Known about the structure:
The complex is a heterodimer of chains A (250) and B (258).
Chain A: E1 2-13, E2 16-28, E3 33-37, H1 44-51, E4 59-64, E5 67-68, E6 76-79, H2 91-101, H3 106-119, H4 135-148, E7 153-157, H5 165-181, E8 185-190, H6 193-199, E9 202-206, E10 213-218, H7 233-248
Parallel strand pairs in A: 3-8, 3-9, 6-7, 7-8
Antiparallel strand pairs in A: 1-2, 1-4, 4-5, 9-10
Helix pairs in contact in A: 2-3, 2-4, 4-5
Chain B: H1 2-30, H2 42-51, H3 53-87, H4 89-102, H5 107-118, H6 122-146, H7 150-158, H8 163-200, H9 206-215, H10 219-247
Helix pairs in contact in B: 2-10, 3-4, 3-6, 3-8, 3-9, 5-6, 5-8, 6-8, 8-9, 8-10, 9-10
Amino acid sequence: MLELKNISKSFTHKKQEKQILQHISLYVDEGEFVSVIGPSGSGKTTLFQIIGGLEPVNSGEVWINGQQTTGQRGHVAYMPQQASLMPWYSVKRNIALALQVAGINKQQADSQAKEWLQKVGLAEYADAYPHMLSGGMSQRVSFLRALLSPQTLMLLDEPFGALDALTRLHMQQWLLSIWEENRRSVLLVTHSIEEALLLSDRIIVLSSSPATIVDEIEVPFARPRASDLWSTPTFNELKQRIYEQLHTNN
Amino acid sequence: MANKQSRWSNIWPPVVTLLFIGIVWELIVRMKLVYSWLIPSPIGVFQGMIEDWPRLMEHLTATTKLSLIGFTGGAIAGFVLAAVLHFLPVVRKGLYPVLILSQTIPVIVIAPILTMLLGYGMMPKIFLIILVCFFPICIATLGGLAQADHQLKNYLSMIGASKWHLFIHLELPSALTNLFAGLRIAVSYSVLSAVVAEWLSPKVGLGSYLILSSRGYMPDRVFASVLLIVLMSLLLFWIVSFIESRCVHWRPKKGSQG
């Protein structure tokens, strides 16, 4: 599905070269939910920019669906930290736009957007403008937009980072329930350990400056995820393990 | 209800001020503090206007037509040039300073040159208005196109949007507010420059009516044409604002919470 082969990236700032990513190799299987967790400033966003083809790499390759896509755009569906809905389009048009950009014709995109808004119980917001939505609602729309895009890989860039704790919790549950029924390959960047454990099949732990992979954890919980996951000993053990790794490597 | 009240409270202070000025003016003329053949009384202006109404209308129509043709031409030219410069940053870098520089040449100086080049017909007049209108629209649109939200741009690039997609779905809508600000300025300029253009070869239009009346010492007619010019500018300005409110319908209404 997605494969990163030995990606390295550095920026030159005031004639000083700063290594951001060092020998990053990772993969996401078909229908797998993988989280990348790391301290802030560890180059997670740069990693996404590279996968999305916006940043050139110094060395390494990006492969998506058996095709080398290094430096090519348009191979991913994307959900950024800020919902990034076009303020001049209604919710429905915003979703349809993502499909249109990916090459689906307008009518089909519109009807698909409408159908899905109904399916996930957001039909009443179809004609609302983004400024009328709460933060959580905007992110739902943003997620749906990424889910409906024909690109098979979804990149979620700290999608709940700007939300308050309670909304965040609701959103995680909501996303989980929809994703578990409509499995797609997902690469999620987060700095919440609980979020990574709750949502993903596998967690990749990064160190910072330069980012290297320090650990890879298979999350053993069955799907659909139970709501009392928090209180299980395994959950807390894993949480402790990741916490320590983030701590010792920075 | 509250909205109506606040609109009313916005309207009455300037109306009262204008009425007050009008009354004081009328009194000054009536008490013969100034010569009435030099400064006419407001009522005298309205009388002159009514007397000469058919001819005034003819001139008003001519000026309106001239302004609108020039304005439309300027708007199209300004918008197209802005879009082209937006897509060709190298050309933009070269042309932008020249554009700014060209604006230091006053209209009143360009007008005779255009007449010299293009004769006394409609062409130099229309061309003058286009030249005047095109600049504020072009600069405003360029600024608007460049200020598109960075995050939205990043999102669209990430999902593989082409330059054309970016232009149509992001940059153009972001530029609309600026574009309309430019259009509002340009539409007022268009009337102004139509009047100036008509001075140069006075045949038809409020500008020629104004200059001929002033040469003939008919101040009530001069004031009447000035009044019509002002009203026409206001009307065109209002029409542009109205179209803007129809086009830019997604913005949160003032006072309502998002």
